[in-house]
Amino acid sequence: MGKETKLLEKLELVIPGFHGYKKKELLREDDRLVRGKVADLLVQARKEIERALQRCAMLNCSQLVAMDSLRKKLVGLEGRVRHAEAGYAGYFDRVKIREKEIGALIEYDAKVIELAEEIVSKAKSLSGEVVNPQALGLSVLELDDKLRALEEALDKRMSVVVGE
User: Fold this and answer.
1) Which of 23, 40, 110 is nearest to 77 (CA)?
2) 17-22-28 Cα angle (round to 5)
3) How does pLDDT run across 146-158, given as a tens digit for each residue?
4) Residue 26: other Cβ atoms inside 10 A
5) Contact of 21 with 27, CB cutoff 8 Å
6) Please, are residues 37 and 102 in contact by the beta-carbon 8 Å criterion?
7) Could you report the per-residue pLDDT of 72-96, keeping only the tens digit for each?
8) What is the DSSP letter of 25?
């Protein structure tokens, strides 16, 4: 219970209004709040990549196409997260979420937010690395790995929500 409590406290600090899925009627609202926070972080990361893309274009760096691909991936992920129907199409109504599932959902929420924050941090570093092609290439690869990890975490989170 200690690990879950720490994660819950972190989520409550990071997401204003988050209740930790304490009441059934708040499930959709908490889900919406988590997804909104993650989507906002992804928008922030996209803006950082766009700044780096501008610098990269000015310097004619070799990672321009790879960085634009990351930007496009972020746009898609942000849309997927932000525009998913609240509670994933009424699954909260059809699926009985018990304490065990709530604990798993809180863990995935914390993981998804942590990954989104890491993505923002890594995206912020790209602008400074544009002048160093090797460092920029490594950062682009690391950012791509983090985006894949976020996609996987979102998929696993969704499977908890739908009761799989």
Assistant:
1) 40
2) 65
3) 999 999 998 888 8
4) 15
5) yes
6) no
7) 999 999 998 888 655 444 444 545 5
8) G
Place of tokens 């972190």: 10
Q: How far is CA 62 from CA 9, 52, 144, in A?
A: 43, 13, 16
Q: How many residues does the chain have?
A: 164
Angle at 49 between CA 45 and CA 52, to 5 degrees: 140
Residue 90, number of CB atoms within 10 A of its CB? 11
Q: Report the amino acid identity of residue 39.
A: A
d(CA 54, CA 60): 10
Distance CA 11, CA 16 (A): 9
Q: Are 78 and 46 in contact (CB under 8 A)?
A: yes
